[in-house]
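Quick board copy: two proteins, each given as sequence then tokens.
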Amino acid sequence: MAREVRHPRLVATIILVLILGMWGTIAGPGWSPDPYLNQIVPQTSDTRIGSNVTTTPTHTYEVLTEVHEIVLSDGQTIKVTLRTPVGVDRPAPAVIFMHGTGTDQHTAFNQQATTLASAGIITVVGDKPLDRYSTTARDYLDLAAAYEDQWNWLAENPAVDRSQIGVYGESEGAFIAPIVAAEEPDVGFVILVSAPVLPIRQQGALATDTYLRRLGVPEQLLQAIPRLIGGELPGGFDYIDFDVSPYQRQLEQPVFIMYGTGDYSMPVIQGANQIISDIATNGNTKYTLRYYEGADHGLRIENENGDLVLSAEAGRDVSRWILGLPATADAEPRIAGDQPVQNFTAESPGSPRWYASGTAALVILIAGLALTVLSFLGGLIGQIRIKGQRLLNMKGVATPLIVAGVSVVAAWVAFVWYVLAIAELALSYQTDALIVRGGWLICQIVAIFAAAMVVRLIYAWLRARPLKGIAHATIVIGIIGLATLLTALAYWNVYPSLLSALT
């Protein structure tokens, strides 16, 4: 006679956890980016712009700041901040600033625009037309049209040298600057600061990977990168696959590329190589590349007071480069500054399967939660007695149902809390081993406990059978909902996997 299993629920829990762990490994695309091999080595650490041309240093002129309103070609009115150097007696070069993701007002770029103006360069910072820009929908061609209107407005200013009006695109603005320069050949020069270059989906995958590796997160969390970024996103987000390369390949203007080596969100080497390669297809070899030691995404460094200020070297270099054109367009050294680091290639993440992508993933998660909540309420009703009789006779299954529901939801809450805590650490460039490792351990413990409570529920249900009517339907609905939530949680590799350990 076969020996009876002494702890069947424990064995069933172990088997369930292993199945969930295996499912997490095979259910979605893996993540193993290739090393980036085409490295850049600066010719010198001194970022100063070469050539013998004499230019005016920064802080030479006082700056007159004025706010104007201009009407765009679509009829919309925006405000622009115009900064003019006081005392320049000839038409001056000018720069139009283009916002990244984090700014949209004409009051932005204060340090950058004022620094350039103090060297003799007229600057314009306009409002970003937010009717063309949202979290889910961004049309870079439409945004470029708004900046072309600003270019045309500035070109009418008699104090401006019309042949030397350039564009300054920072971060996401570096997608728009090449569009404007490609469509308006009279643009005099292009400045690309912290340029993503690659589609946001690829750049975002690399940035997430870099942040998470710096934090030292478990390998299982790295595998979530393509599952989060690779699929369709509900509500739009088509712009994350926008490719700026076709516009960069049309550029004939001199291009100044600037990155900070304290910026971990951009492909600082791959992006620069891509820009240089793109413009070369049009026979354009007029590029200058600079890396600023410790500077962040906005080319800022921390001063002695702990404040973030524009790198003095960056302000000095970009103003001299503009004022020295055309002599500075290809002056040596072409590549200079701090040694940049990019360990992995920014590449397209794998695509999740249909059930984990776009609306389908959201519907499945909401359905699982709805069924769980519905059965939870049924379990609560099953606990109510009136005149000694339960409103819903669930034969002792109500308590396991309630506990299982609370446990699974708690596992999800723990996981979401952990992801948000990691995101906050990463974006603030902080580290905390207690949260990174301890938080992940808590997530796994709560998830395993939730699996154990679901097993307990199933055993209680099997012992109580046959249940009939509403009681039976409540338990079945609950098990389906809980199984859905557990499977969805396992997709994010919360459960330990033997397959991962073997590979």
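And the next:
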Amino acid sequence: MKRDKSGPVSLTVLIAFAANVLVAAAKTVAALISGSASMTAEAAHSWADTGNQVFLLIAERKAARKRDKSHPMGYGREAYVWSMIAAFGLFTAGAVVSVMHGIQQLITPEPPGDYGIAYVVLAVAFVLEGVSFTQALRQTRKAAREFDRNTLEQVLKSSDPTLRAVFAEDGAALIGLLIAFAGMALHQATGSSVPDAVGSILVGLLLAGIAVVLIERNRRFLVGQAVPADIEAGMARRLLEHPDIERLTYLHLEFVGPRKLYVVAAVDMQGDRREHDVAAALRRVERELEDHETVEEAVLTLSTADEASLVFPAG
């Protein structure tokens, strides 16, 4: 069965966190020296990203807890809750602050300051953000190859919200740096603060768009996002390849966390065995399914003779 995995992402999140702390501090100093609205927006962006990495690390830790009596399906959905909080943080601390500062700059223009240090910070920030984005891109492409998906499709479909957030935020950071560079350069060349202010607003709108997408994806998984057809087909093939199973007439898969599935299936067992033997075989198949790292719980029932067999494409 193909697994919906993006690989371990703790390293990806930690790299993003370290990069954002350094970048945020440098951008803040550059914003104070240059007085650039675009740089101020970028500083707000990086501090928002830094805080978000903390939420994403919390999401990973909480989602990894083993299931217990109070949470029979595990704690996997904690990842979507904390990732959604991080997305709201990106919207409020990054997008809103950037847009408001840009509007303020339009209303009360400030003269350009020393942009030399700002350009240096932008260059260093681009390198650091590029390192973080490369790590996220590597993890995403690895998972995308497994499912024969393109990279963007994997980002949107993956059940792993932390990697999706890091990928989206780092990608937005690189675009934001280019916008800030253009805004400052035009401010310096024309003497008008309008391009710089517009750059700040554009950075804010970019962050708002990313935040809305992340919030929507987390919402979908919290309320019961449908499992992609390729994962469903992979599970069906795994069941039908089991020596004890002859037919599959019903299959329900549900994400209960990042790369974690709840499996319910109706099957027709091989041969015509006694009730006790059939029950033992069903339980054995359930345990074998649950041994797989992506299955949180499996529940199998028996099909009746009149139920039609499910047909899935060969993989």
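Board note added afterward: The domain at 229-302 is CATH 3.30.70.1350 (Alpha-Beta Plaits).
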